[in-house]
Structures are given as structure tokens and as C-alpha cells.
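agent> step 3/5: call structure_predict on target 'Aldo/keto reductase' (Planotetraspora silvatica).
agent> reason: downstream docking stage needs a structural representation; sequence fetched in step 2, passing through unchanged.
tool.input:
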Amino acid sequence: MDYVTMGRSGLKVSRACLGTMNFGSGDHPLAGCGEGEAAQIIGAFLDRGNNFVDTADAYTGGQSEEVVGRAIKGRRDEVVLATKGFMRQGHGPNHRGLSRAHLTRALEASLLRLGTDHIDLYQCHGWDDTTPIEETMATLDGFVRSGKVRYIGCSNFTAAQIVEAQWAADRAGTTPFISLQPQYSLIARSIEAEILPTCERHGLGTLVYSPLGSGVLTGRYGRDNDPDEDSRLGRFLKAGIPAARTWAQELLSDRNLDIVEEVRTVAAELGTTSTAVALAWVRQRPGVTSVIIGPRTPEQLDGALASLTLDLPAETLARLDEVSQTTTIPLVNGVNDPTRPAATRPGRS
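tool.output (status=ok):
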């Protein structure tokens, strides 16, 4: 098993990180993997020597954390367990964000749902411009000193926000971030411009999400066919939420489908799958520590793990780089990576 160090720390993680955003059942729009199958996926993932599992308090209304907690019971010491806080968890004004009030409540709730006494990597799920970053970093440092959290990280932060956070921790002599969780794939490459270099300078490793572009890069979508109703994009296209429909439609832009066609061509030439090509490209990119995979079935897990062992030839990497080159847009404030092209700025992970 190939383990790597996360950022400027001693934490060893597998190159594959199991994403659990789909774990849960019921009417939640992201729920697509029931508890029985989720437990099989987690067990198989760990049995193969992988140790990195990522969830969040916002995933499937908290179900994801509960499912993960029950699945790793008895194997807790094998797991580098990551979760996140920030998203709204109640109706009051202090039930969202990165304030001491909200994060303290959110951490305690996550510990309860996960059935554990500590989180290995606790991440800020987004930037909060209503809370001083000094308060956030001091609060997270308190979690570490209490033993309830081992390491801290962030998700969806811009380069400038990473710098602010690390400087705040340095000034106060408190715990810095060791990781960033950004979106990264052949259709969403804008973190290369500023964010990845900033992570390197400031000691952050990366666990990248949506390496398959929310499923677009699997090759299951094309210009001549509508997404299946049971697919993630299909569910969002038929949802009654305008923003969700717009996000799904933009993912199927002409630019993105051009990339999909090139990935299909490469896959045929190499005798492999589009999924394997897209995942291999991400794994081989400079600055990527771990790649988050989000299987909904044991079969998808098998395919994803096999794909992460594929090494693409240099000439193939160059072809994929050329077809997927992108430009950035001006910085704006927001939870998601604001340098991401508008056509690839979906909901957060």
C-alpha cells in the first residue's frame, strides 16, 4: 500500500480517500447508497489497506456520519477519519459558520454521530466572512489541545483565505491547517493557478474531490443522450431546485463534453475505461496528496481502486492537458473556489 504524508505533518494517509457523501437513504437528493451497501464498501476499502475516510456533518442530513461511525466500529484504529463543520445545522443565527459557538456544537454532534471520542482531521467546510479567522483558528486549536481533534484542515478556501488562516495561527502560536479539500478534475483545473502553489508554500496537503467531474468524466453522458434518471446529474436535472438544474446543465457544456470525448478516445487506445483515465490523470498531477473516490456500489469501488494504479504515458498526459486547459475568472467572495470557471462551479463537497 502506498501511503503519503498529509502536508507539513506526520499523518500518513492512503492515496485513495473514501468519500461518503452518498451514504444514506430516504428523500435526501444526495442519498444513493443504503447502509448495508455502504458498510460493504467501507469494509472492502479498509481490507485493501486503505485508511482514509472523509465525511461531513452536512452529508445526507447527518446520515453519512452515522453510517460511517457504525461501519468502522471495531476498526477505529485503522482509520484516518475526516469530517467537516460549517454548514447550517439548525435554524438559529449561531447554527452555521466558523464561530466558536457553532463549531463547538458541530464538533460535539459529529463525535456523537460517528460514535468516536476524536476526529483525526477536522475541516472547515467553507470560509466564513462574518467570523474573524483568529477566532476560528483559536477554536480549532482548542479542539486539538482537548484531544478531540488530531489535525485540522479546510475545504473550498481560496489562496488568500489559506494564507490568512495560516498567518493567524502563526501569530497566535496555535495549530495550523495541514490540508485543503478542493475540487479538481480535467474539467475543473483552476486551482493550479494559485491555490496549489499556496498549499505547497504553507504546508497543506490536498485531498481532492470530484475527480470524475460529478460523473461527467465516466463517459456515461454525451451530446446525444440525456442523463439517466437514477444518475446524480439526472436527479439534479429533474429536481425542483433551479440552482441544481443549472449546475447539472452547466456540467454538460460543450467544453466539458469535448474533454469527455478525448478521455473516451484515450481509454480506447489504452484498453481501459474513461473512469480509469480521469482518475489516473488526477493522481499523477503535482500537488495532489490523496484522491477522493465516491463509489455507490462495491463494483464501483473495485473499478476506482484499480484505476488509481494506472500510470498514463507522458504523451497521453500532454494530450489531456491540452484539451482541458482553462482560464480563471475574477476573484469573488464565496464558499466555493471562486477561481473556478463558471461552467464547472457546482455544489460543494
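agent> step 4/5: record observation. The beta strands are 3-5, 12-14, 16-19, 52-54, 80-85, 119-124, 149-155, 179-181, 205-208, 290-293.
agent> proceeding.
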